[in-house]
Amino acid sequence: MGSPAKRSKKSPVATKLFVLDTNVLMHDPTSLFRFDEHDIFLPMMTLEELDNNKKGMSEVSRNARQASRFLDQMVSGTEGTLDQGIPLAEPSQGGATGNLFLQTAPLAPTTPAHLPLGKADNLILSVVAALREQHPGRQVILVSKDINMRIKSRALGIAAEDYTNDKVLEDTDLLYTGFQELPADFWDAHSKGMSSWQEGGRTFYKLSGPLCKSLMVNEFLFGGGQEDFSAIVREQTGKTVVLETLKDYTHQKNNVWGITARNREQNFALNLLMDPNIDFVTLLGQAGTGKTLMTLAAGLAMTLEKKLYTEIIVTRVTVPVGEDIGFLPGTEEEKMTPWMGALEDNLDVLNQSDQEAGEWGRAATRDLIRARIKVKSLNFMRGRTFLNKFVIIDEAQNLTSKQMKTLITRAGPGTKIICLGNIAQIDTPYLTEGSSGLTYVVDRFKGWAHSGHVTLQRGERSRLADYAAETL
Predict the structure, then answer these.
(1) Domain-wise residue ranges, the chain
(2) Alpha-carbon distance 416 to 275, whole Å?
(3) Where is the PIN domain (predicted)?
(4) ω into residue 320 within 30 of 0, thus cis?
(5) What pLDDT score was predicted for residue 109?
(6) pLDDT (tens digit, 9 = 90+) per residue, 24-60?
(7) Among the CATH numbers 1.10.8.60, 3.40.50.261, 3.40.50.1010, 1.10.530.10, which is that of 17-161?
(8) DSSP of 50-112
């Protein structure tokens, strides 16, 4: 068996030996290079399960094939036996300095007799137990994404951990909300040397002070001892920021396709959606906070009234993610229709807002709107480029970070992408709030001059829906 070399007592860092379960490699093939100075051990059963999962077009199958390619490159590059381990420094480009060990000989099963050995999980557990006996002075830890596997291993007294390298945040309460309330003494502490001017109907303030360092570009601010003050950070350099006052979308005269903001966060969201300089918007929020309705209203206003975009493209994850939409007769749009009930509901609301048009006028408007809205499946997004399109990605919390990257990189010149979702409602079995693609983009895009984010907090659907959300 590939025997992970015991470290000398002079070794400054006691390195650990991590045994990887198959699901870690199928979740993230680059996990092989993510363990810094520690060693990695792959049981034969892990390789066997990789082989069993390599067929198919799903994300998991792709990852299994990629993990096998990485292993092939490393194994074929070594001379002699694998007993001494394969150094990871070169394939990881200096990211990892430990060694990779493969199981090259059978290990005596040392697991309790009541654990049946026919199961792959139990065979991996027996390998971990045997390794622990071979290296009594060293920490041997199983890494698995499978919760039951971790429970089993702890029941047997074996250390087990989740693979958390790709988690954006440990605690989603720390996720950037896109706005913050200013302290009551904000203006007193920051007004020294302040300058203000007007431009295009908006007021700008340039100020500096201790709080300015922590502000992000395109972050919304409110309060500061003034009830009706709300602004957006336009520039931030060191301790100096430029604030711009917002357009008030709560007022009927500024309605967007008949829709007005009903609360402060909705006003923030409409300021982002209606700003042509912002190319990427993320809106998080519970059911009924108005994400889809505001986005569609803004899309229609900017496509049909302002003519900034040529059409609206709506896509959403059809969970199970990436599965085929079927070979039954029907176009891509017809097959996506069942998934787009939410879109239809919101279009009905937007149509009702025009009271003066009458039945005929509303029917004509509906046909005009339908002609400008295209419903697309995620499966056919690779290789496309969207020019001057208003792209809405609904239910984005079900996307992995890789799928999110695939979608956002479709944007050509003049395209605006809006991601909507609720990270508390993830339907995909392999994603958590911390590793969802939506959490990932919110965290990575914060502070970029052409992106904005708002977490909507108040439901505006109905008193029944709000009460149900609170009490059930």
Answers:
(1) 17-161, 172-245, 262-471
(2) 10
(3) 16-151
(4) yes
(5) 59
(6) 888 888 888 888 888 889 888 888 888 888 888 777 8
(7) 3.40.50.1010
(8) HHHT--SSSHHHHHHHHHHHHHHHHHHT--S-STT-EE-TTTTTTS--SEEEE--S-----S-
Question: Pick from 427, 408, 409: which is nearest to 418 by CA?
Answer: 408
Is residue 91 within 8 Å of residue 74, measured between CB atoms? yes
- Cβ neighbors of 459 (< 8 A, separation 6 or more) are 286, 287, 288, 289, 465, 466, 469
Would you state the CATH architecture of domain 262-471? 3-Layer(aba) Sandwich (3.40)
d(CA 382, CA 397): 19
Tokens of 439: 């959490």
| Shared fold status for 17-161 and 262-471 | yes
Q: Which residue has the tokens 């991601």?
A: 419
Q: First-to-last CA distance in the chain?
A: 55
Give the pLDDT band of residue 196 (cuts 50, 70, 90). very high
Please check the confidence at residue 272 and state whether its pLDDT lies above 80: yes
* DSSP tag of 119: S
Give the CA distances from residue 197 to residues 216, 242, 449, in Å, rounded to whole numbers and listed in that order. Answer: 21, 11, 21
150: its two tokens:
């971790």
Q: How far apart are CA 447 and CA 280, in angstroms?
A: 12
CA distance 27 to 29: 7
Contact 317, 378 (CB under 8 A): yes
> φ and ψ at 407, to 5 degrees?
-70, -45
Instruction: Kindly give, in sequence order, each residue whose CB lies less than 8 Å from that of residue 183, ignoring residues fewer than 6 positions away.
Output: 189, 211, 223, 224
* Higher-scoring residue by pLDDT: 192, 360: 192
Structure tokens at 397: 């919390």
Average pLDDT over residues 281-290: 88
* Number of neighbours of residue 359 by Cβ within 10 angstroms: 7
